[in-house]
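Work Package 4 report. The design task specified in the project plan requires that, given a folded chain encoded as structure tokens, an amino acid be chosen for each position. We show below one input record used in the internal validation round.
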């Protein structure tokens, strides 16, 4: 690995850690970068998942004030996310690599659409969110479980999906729900990363660079990332995501 490649992967880790904490979809930064440097899609996805775990942990620590009083809620949802994450990771390793390469462009396209329309989603969710509900129903738990499966398999835009599920299900402050989202996506990355470490080939050099970068990015996202202009973040994600689709289809 050359110096410039290492710097690019580390910088992508910082960006992904920041974006994951603020809105989600940091995978749309790091995954395309690994593809650009010649890593096969499945290895890039596995290494990316392992590398993003420290960033999620840092983001959760940064949101610790917003997590106060949510222990029971987080514990209940964590069981759904963890179970889904393990299933998603096993599916990734069980299905042929060609299936992953074929389906990921569609996943990325869906994630990009969610990123672009995210402001409208937020407005709609705010208009339709429950005003008195404090407990999650079975459909919301099922949604978190399915998001966990998706996150264990690929993960881009998992955070946006989770935030939509939580916002539609609970009457609470957005930052408190975002804190729950950070914890849940981090747990999915953690459990799927553990599966990958023992059952898949991890490219440890880029995974370590992403880990170091995402750790810094997670802290940035929890402290100052909320002040970054959302349109700028969305524009960067869309450009990189389109590049990934082109690379996969070429």
């Amino acid at each position: 690995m050359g110096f410039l490649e290492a710097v690019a992967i580390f910088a992508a880790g910082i960006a992904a850690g920041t974006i994951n904490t603020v809105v989600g979809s940091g995978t749309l930064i790091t995954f395309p970068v690994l593809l650009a440097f010649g890593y096969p899609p499945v290895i890039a996805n596995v290494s990316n998942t392992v590398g993003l775990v420290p960033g999620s942990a840092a983001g959760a620590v940064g949101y610790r004030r917003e997590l106060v009083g949510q222990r029971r809620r987080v514990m209940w949802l964590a069981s759904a996310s963890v179970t889904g994450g393990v299933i998603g990771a096993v599916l990734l390793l069980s299905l042929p690599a060609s299936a992953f390469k074929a389906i990921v462009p569609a996943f990325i396209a869906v994630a990009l659409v969610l990123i672009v329309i995210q402001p409208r989603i937020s407005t709609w969710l705010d208009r339709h969110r429950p005003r008195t509900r404090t407990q999650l129903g079975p459909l919301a738990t099922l949604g978190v479980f399915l998001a966990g499966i998706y996150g264990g398999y690929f993960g881009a835009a998992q955070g946006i999906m989770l935030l939509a599920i939580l916002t539609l299900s609970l009457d609470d402050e957005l930052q408190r729900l975002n804190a729950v989202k950070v914890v849940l996506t981090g747990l999915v990355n953690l459990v799927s990363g553990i599966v990958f470490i023992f059952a898949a080939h991890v490219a440890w050099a880029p995974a370590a660079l992403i880990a170091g970068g995402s750790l810094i990015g997670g802290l940035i996202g929890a402290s100052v990332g909320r002040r970054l202009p959302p349109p700028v973040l969305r524009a960067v994600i869309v450009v990189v995501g389109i590049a990934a689709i082109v690379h996969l289809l070429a």
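The two ends are 24 Å apart (CA to CA). Validation will be extended to a larger panel in the next phase.
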